[in-house]
Design a protein that fits this description.
2 copies of one chain form a homodimer. Chain A is of the alpha+beta class. Chain A folds into 2 domains: 255 residues, L-amino peptidase D-ALA esterase/amidase; 117 residues, ArgJ beta chain, C-terminal domain (Ubiquitin-like (UB roll), Roll). Chain A has 10 helices and 15 strands. The first copy, chain A, has a 6-stranded mixed beta sheet. In chain A, strands 3-9-8-7-6 form a 5-stranded mixed beta sheet, sandwiched between helices. In chain A, strands 1-2-4-5 form a 4-stranded mixed beta sheet. The relative contact order of chain A is 0.14. Chains A and B meet through helix 8, helix 9, strand 13 and helix 10 of A and helix 2, helix 8, helix 9, strand 13 and helix 10 of B. Chains A, B: Its main location: cytoplasm. Chains A, B: This is Arginine biosynthesis bifunctional protein ArgJ. Chains A, B: Catalyzes two activities which are involved in the cyclic version of arginine biosynthesis: the synthesis of N-acetylglutamate from glutamate and acetyl-CoA as the acetyl donor, and of ornithine by transacetylation between N(2)-acetylornithine and glutamate.
């Protein structure tokens, strides 16, 4: 299903030979319309990969005919030749579809700093184009994996019968202002590119933007939303936003569960904040404490490490009014020891850390993972 | 030697029974004058331990007769009773010295959130006072260790024959705006508390403040500078600042080398910055990239992870003018691949990563460590 769940889309995922091991490494998603309305959000990193620079230009036009995605190389920090490679890839897809390169988005993921094997990739576009089908969503989702152990897909039916489908990749580097992730979401509902843009920004702000597995921000993050209009359904905008948010949340959850080396999925739930921004800031600071992430890995309810992370922020709070619960046990009350820490059960994979700032009515939740020897191993032994 | 290298100081380090294992856990450093001029800098964390709140008040007066330091408990996040315990400790030291509690600084280090065994600690003060000696510097340095594998001490002779001595502890949580560290520096030079304050702030800003082993900031960081004036030497202020900076740098280096689980000492040298602040910001961002720290652990010269960290900052730079060298090999030039990465030798323990922003004449160096399975183990198995 994935990106081909909605009407009007075909996809393919093939092994072009970009990855040495012969695994799938090239995906193509084509929107056959009648509409080509599209929106995109991109990494906030100021060091942007060539495909991000290219696709941001394409999306500025609000129309996308096709997206070509490769794993096996990020095409980031590759200079002018890297941008030429991205341009050539878009031109090649345009040629096989007999369309305009200005409406072809390009995404890449893999090692930074190395040039893609461009001839191999361009040959792969021919093969992918020849395999495009209404059943190609799963193969496409498989082809964009790097260290992902499983494909990430999602789909939902909207009111009136339109469909939303999506695929994503990303396992490390999950971070604010988007993770290292590529994500393509499709729908056969009928909407303008302005509507898609507004909905996508709202949905990603409360889903992908609130993942922070290791605090690192990628050069390649891209989330695209493509609408074919093939169902003829014009959705209620609020309902559509809800569906897109659900699909984003579902994919975000899948990314987190598959994060490199993680043994715990940790929700940092900040309540009692003076503003939503304060809640996000505090959640982010707590989620980035390596010491806390190690403690949770060791199933140690070390709330002192929570408080010392909260104390590094400029959020509104008084230290002696902070409360912290871990898995529902309020082990810190009024900035000091509360309930017995032995009551905390940290054996389940899912861990919730609640931080009450006692400063207002706002809240936000940031999702992170524990820090494990497996994370260290994966990121010291594998060049990515 | 340590804090008793300068004239006018006595010290002791004893096992009071605060630590379960019977190791030394209480240190006392006494300034017998004739001067008591002193200065201190404290953690920027807004969640401050009771001894930090107390000692900041003491130092506001510019005079310190004695410093009492304990390991085995941070006395942080312990509420009003924790503050009372700190106060009682200062009163006890004042009583045994027949002096004023208002000139007794208190430092604590260990687990956050648990009350100190205060009776044990107060009894220990009596024992420590009975063992005060001109030879006690090493025992004092030993008594403030937590996960430190070795004591950290330093001393220098200044022009005209005055001495500077110091001791420090700290192995994890080394971070900006001071690390988890307690540090006491003594001198027998004659200076005012205002002079000491200005010198200490300048010295810590370019030494301890530029350590960032794991991005975590402690609730207890304290650096104290005490002057007895016993040598009768009034030093040249610039020369004195140089000596204090050297002692701070020496202790900082010892902290970094002993950082929990580290196998590499990494200097992030940022050059070509538009301002010193930009250089510090970029150095800090790079030093906090878990992905990069894992790569260096794996001896992989992964400059893409350097650039993606640089890109998260608001420093002045253009992505296509960034250059990166690892151990002297410029493997990234103009934001793209430069010299052959196979030329980089990452086997030595000391690693230098040079980031050239090509944006100005300013520079700064941040010191960090690699991220290892041993770090994860130490911080998941040990509650600190």
């Amino acid at each position: 299903m994935s990106v081909t769940a909605p009407l009007g889309f075909r996809a393919a995922g093939i092994a072009a030979g970009i990855k040495a091991a012969g695994a799938r490494d090239l995906a193509l998603v084509v929107n056959d319309g009648p509409s080509r309305a599209a929106a995109g959000v991109f990494t906030a990193n100021r060091v942007k990969a060539a495909p991000v620079l290219w696709s941001a230009q394409v999306l500025a036009g609000g129309r996308v005919r096709a997206v070509v995605l490769n794993s096996g190389g990020a095409n980031a920090c590759t200079g002018p030749v890297g941008f030429q490679d991205t341009h050539a890839t878009a031109e090649k897809v345009a040629a096989v579809l007999e369309d305009s390169a200005g409406e072809i988005a390009v995404c890449s993921t893999g090692l930074i700093g190395e040039r893609l094997p461009i001839d191999t990739l361009l040959d792969g576009v021919d093969i992918a184009a020849s395999q495009l089908s209404r059943d190609g969503g799963l193969a496409a989702a498989d082809a964009i994996r790097t260290t992902d152990t499983v494909s990430k897909i999602s789909f939902k039916r909207g009111d009136g019968g339109y469909m939303v489908g999506g695929m994503a990749k990303g396992a490390g580097m999950l971070a604010p202002a988007l993770a290292t992730m590529l994500c393509v979401i499709t729908t056969d509902a009928e909407l303008t590119s302005e509507q898609l843009d507004a909905v996508l920004r709202k949905a990603t702000r409360v889903t992908f933007d609130r993942l922070d597995s290791d605090g690192c921000m990628s050069t390649n993050d891209t989330v695209l939303l493509l609408a074919s209009g093939a169902s003829g359904v014009v959705p209620d905008l609020a309902e559509f936003e809800k569906k897109i948010t659900e699909v984003c949340a579902d994919l975000a959850r899948q990314l987190l569960v598959d994060a490199e080396g993680a043994s715990k999925a940790i929700a940092i739930e900040v309540i009692g904040a003076a503003s939503e921004q304060d809640a996000v800031t505090v959640g982010r600071a707590v989620s980035r404490s390596n010491l806390l992430k190690c403690a949770i890995h060791g199933e140690d309810p070390n709330w002192g490490r929570v408080l010392s992370a909260v104390g590094t922020t400029d959020a509104v709070f008084e230290a002696d009014r902070l409360n912290v619960a871990i898995n529902g046990v309020w082990i810190c009350r009024g900035g000091a020891a509360g309930d017995d820490r032995s009551k905390v059960d940290l054996r389940p994979r899912d861990v919730t850390i609640t931080v009450d700032l006692s400063a207002g009515p706002h809240s936000a939740t940031i999702h992170t993972t524990d820090l494990t020897a497996a994370y260290v191993h994966e990121n010291s032994a594998y060049s990515s």
